[in-house]
């Protein structure tokens, strides 16, 4: 059964002009785009999105980074979307990411790692609802 996941093209990838190339990878992997928007978010919006990481030492840097420039928010659909997107993204630290993954190709560091993808069904539901209204998902 088709499953939905949530993704972000992060400010580093947008700034470097990798958005189109990342769309191509997502398309080639068989995902349908169900929702899409380009935004520049505030630090407070980034803090709300990443609240699960609020005790982590990198929380302040991460939320400053995520609010440093335009990002593209995506709701993606396919069978096994959550796990398949995580596989396509590669490891959090691009130094550990497998050849051919988006982070291996486009990420610069463990923080500026090009793309976000939900890690579980409950997180996908929270993340989609945080950024999108139901009528924006087509
Ligand atoms: P993900 O699910 O692979 O995105 O990784 P996590 O959920 O563990 O972390 C969320 C985001 O925080 C990552 O994608 C990175 O942008 C950032 N991050 C994770 N670990 C570190 C770290 O050790 N240092 C810094 N500066 N950022 C990190």
Care to describe what's here?
The chain has helices at residues 11-15, 19-28, 43-49, 59-66, 81-89, 102-106, 121-131; strands spanning 2-9, 32-39, 71-79, 115-117. It is an alpha+beta fold and 138 residues long. A four-stranded antiparallel sheet has the order 2-3-1-4, sandwiched between helices. Helix 3 packs across helix 4 (59-66). It is globular and about 40 Å long. The mean pLDDT is 98. Guanosine-5'-diphosphate (GDP) is lined by residues 58, 61-62, 92, 110-111, 113, 116, 119.
Look at the helices and sheets and give the structural class: alpha+beta
Report Rg. Answer: 14 Å
Weakly predicted, low-confidence segments: none
Measured by DSSP, the beta-strand proportion falls in 15-25%
Shape: globular
- Walk across the major sheet and give the strand order: 2-3-1-4
Key structural traits:
138 residues, alpha+beta, four-stranded antiparallel beta sheet, 7 helices, globular, binds guanosine-5'-diphosphate
In short:
By secondary structure, this protein is an alpha+beta fold. It is built from 7 helices and 4 strands. Helix 3 packs across helix 4.
Task: Give the helix/strand layout.
Layout: E1 2-9, H1 11-15, H2 19-28, E2 32-39, H3 43-49, H4 59-66, E3 71-79, H5 81-89, H6 102-106, E4 115-117, H7 121-131
Antiparallel strand pairs: 1-3, 1-4, 2-3
Helix pairs in contact: 3-4
The structure holds guanosine-5'-diphosphate.
